[in-house]
Amino acid sequence: MKIGRNLAWMVLCAFFLGLVFPAVSQAETLDVKAESYILIDADSGQVLLAHNEHNQMPPASMTKLMTLILVAQDLQAGKANLTDMVVTSENAWKMGGSQIYLEPGEKFSLEEMLIAIAVGSANDACVAVAEHLEGSHEAFVERMNKTAQEMGLKNTHFVNSYGLPAQGHYSSAYDMAVIARAALQYPKLLEYSSIKEYELRNGEFILYNTNKLLWWYQGADGFKTGWTNEAKYCLTSTVKRDGLRLIAVVMASPEPRGNFRDSMVLFNYGYAKYAFKSFFDQGNVCGAVKVGKGLAESLEVVAAADVGSICLKGEEKSLSYQQLLPDYIDAPILKNQKIGEIEIYKDQTLVKKVDLVASQDIPAAGPVREMLKLLQMVYLLI
User: Fold this and answer.
1) Which of 36, 44, 98, 121 does the annotation list as catalytic?
2) Active-site residue 121, yes or no?
3) How does DSSP classify residue 306?
4) In principle, which of 27, 167, 203, 249 could form an S-S bond with 199, CB 3.0–4.6 Å?
């Protein structure tokens, strides 16, 4: 499964980066009141700061981040479309807690249901979407747990798709950070979770995003809040500044809005201490290779992801890169086909690999064109 392969490489990079950038010690922890928290580099997974990060705790509505990931998987696989109409069942209608007050038989597009979940934390929309995709809420939750296992989460188990208290429903700050990294693979999830307000039912019902960092903290653009009496105040959030994207998770912050305060303390620490050294942005041309037997004689290759890495501020010069490309490749070539890669090093330690992919399709040349090219070469040699 694609997400499994990607996460396996993320975990490996995080291990090596752990040797280069050890996580801050307990003695250096900040004034964060949450019972459990973590701050990580989204690109590498490197843990920058953590406390009780593996403790099993109720995640409340942060659960919905996994719900959104499963929907994004189905959209990517073509098993669902944003225009699909989702019909509200009586089971969804009965949901309590935060909701958009769906009525039995009421229909919304899958996209609007996703926005209701991401922005308004709608429990009823979670159930409606779960039933739409898997036939029953129970089957959807089973898939959530299977996905958690595929991600390698050791301290997560779901009983429902929305996060209301239930025996055996738990996660950890570390696991929630891993889930957030996985969510970043689906740009639509970041797009939806960054919406500040959204009008439903022709403006009769307005959703206001529960994540107040979108208003209060520069660069914040996701992901999900959570609160119940048992879980207290929780937040899984992400911020990007100057190329550096960080993820913070706080669980069981004791005071109202304390989840936002604690998260800002973590982000302030991260952006004061770390930077992102960038060599190429995603989509930038990084080189070219000669092409044989094709309708073009050369091919530009582009970066499949941002080419760069986290580093301590002032140590940017310790990072370097090495480009690995073949001298020659035969057509046909498909756009986004992997051609080579770039390796990023901190001193002598490999910390990241980025694929270099074809910028365009190059069809194979026919025999007539190949003969003409051969005659041209002979003419030039005479």
Assistant:
1) 121
2) yes
3) -
4) 203
Rounded Cα gap, residues 184 and 194, in angstroms:
12
Model pLDDT for residues 275-327, shown as the tens digit of each residue: 999 999 999 999 999 998 888 889 999 999 999 999 999 999 999 999 999 99
Q: Cis check for the bond before 276: say yes or no (omega within 30 of 0).
A: no
Which of 36, 44, 64, 171 is an active site residue?
A: 64
Q: Supply the pLDDT for residue 119.
A: 96
359 is a catalytic site residue: no
| Marked catalytic residue, from 61, 89, 161, 193 | 61
Q: Is 45 left (phi over 0), alpha (psi -120 to 50) or beta?
A: left
- The two structure tokens encoding residue 9: 């490489």
Q: Which residues of 286-320 are buried (b: 16+ CB within 10 A; e: fewer)?
A: bbebebebbeeeebebbbbbbbbbbbeeeeeeebe
**Domains of the chain, each with CATH number or no CATH:** 2-274 (3.40.710.10), 281-381 (2.60.410.10)
Q: Give the tens place of pLDDT for each residue, 172-197.
A: 999 999 999 999 999 999 999 999 99
Distance CA 62, CA 314 (A): 35
Which residues have a Cβ under 8 Å from the Cβ of 184 and sit 6 or more positions away?
42, 190, 238, 245
How is residue 184 annotated by DSSP? T
At residue 116's C-alpha, the angle toward residues 78 and 104, to 5°, is 90
User: What pTM was computed for the model?
Assistant: 0.85
Mutual angle of helices 137-150 and 64-77, in 10-degree steps? 90
Distance between CA atoms of 247 and 45, rounded to whole angstroms?
Answer: 9
pLDDT at 379 (0 to 100): 57
Task: Please report, to the nearest 10 degrees, the dihedral formed by the alpha carbons of residues 164, 165, 166, 170 taken in order.
Answer: 100
Q: Within the chain, which residues score under 70 in pLDDT?
A: 1-29, 366-382
Per-residue pLDDT, 15: 45
Whether 163 and 226 have beta carbons less than 8 Å apart is answered as yes
- Cα 277 from Cα 216, distance rounded (Å): 26
Is position 109 annotated as part of the catalytic site? no
Contact 49, 269 (CB under 8 A): yes
